[in-house]
Here is the input.
Amino acid sequence: MVTKRGSKTHKNKLFVLDTNVLMHDPTSLYRFEEHDLFIPIMTLEELDGNKKGMSEVARNARQASRMLDEIVRACPDGIEDGIDLTEASRGQATGKLFLQTEAIDLHLPPGLPTGRGDNHILAVVAFLAKRFPKRPVILVSKDINMRIKARALGLEAQDYFNDKVLEDTDLLYAGARELPADFWEAHGADLESWKEEGRTYYRLKGPLANELSVNEFVFDNKEGGGFDAWVTEQDGPNVVLETLTDYTHHKNNVWGITARNREQNFALNLLMNPEIDFVTLLGQAGTGKTLLTLAAGLTQVLDTKRYSEIIMTRVTVPVGEDIGFLPGTEEEKMTPWMGALEDNLDVLNGTVDEGGEWGRAATRDLIRSRIKIKSLNFMRGRTFINKYLIIDEAQNLTPKQMKTLITRAGPGTKVVCLGNIAQIDTPYLTEGSSGLTFVVDRFKGWPHSGHITLQRGERSRLADHAAEVL
Here is the structure.
């Protein structure tokens, strides 16, 4: 059990881990730096109860158990005084790990049944808080109700923050920024301008240049035609801007689709650029994420032959009740989840004017033959060469799943992640800890990736009004 130590004890916090923290992130054992960890017996019991199966939760439970086993085996002298985590974590954590090694009298209000695992863990936290009155004893849990119960009992509780990329998603990189009114006056002193292959380039120097990232879009809203460009080079106070292809004009249409607003134009510039290997598109329902991505994919697969085929996948998290086991092949099982794909193909097929009804039917068959629908469950170990990979509803992926998917990309493959971080259906995943937020933040500034947040809905006046008022 926990023994009292010197004055250092009062500076170090004692974190009691709930089971869901270990099942969410097995490496959380090494994420508390100099602070100590305490694992109740009930946490180990619940880990044991969740280890069977092939789900992500079961895999994480087994991984957490293996890590605990390694830590305990590395301490042959006994575990009563805690196990130093410095060596096991390779210096990431310098605190101690304590396992519950004695029976604890459970003193809880009569309304809380002691048979429940959550209440058992709360009783352990209450016991430790009483034993160490001068030391912060904090429960760490991903379960909101558990944290509320802890606070109702006068105990300290907090969420597991280590997996959060951002505390406030309003700070998330938007991919585009409006230039201030005095931009050209402040940055025009050493302005260089030249033309190359139909594009105009500007080399500038000034205070805003330090804040810009490579592949970030910039624009101004001056009357009589604004200025749209993106950053192609960034070196300290120097920056090179390049003008964009105008996909709002019908002569630059992509599979019959033109951009309806500035952000859609930015998105098509990313999707159609062969130098950009990784694209993330964020936006609420109806902003055109899937339609633009599919139009760009079909053009580059069927017209320019840049990629051999489109592969589309998404997380199968139901919003309502699950519909049970589905018959058929992998593709047939995924079909109910791919309604968005079918809806968008109907729109794109309607842009083909030649050949009448027969021509459209033939085009639809050709399109479907070049789009493969894959399940996430069978992605490990695969390599996609020369493919156009679309990950839909990417906000429901954890950072670990996102890494598994993106590392499937072989030579010549482009990966496009689509999502709306306001619509997360995966348990224990929040806007700040979603895999989509994670990759937007981590890929910022890489020369072969780009991001844009689509702001304006283009679905219909009804959908726009509903998104606003409901």
Notes: Confidence is low (pLDDT under 50) at residues 1-9, 318-323. Residues 260-469 form a domain with the Rossmann fold fold (CATH 3.40.50.300).
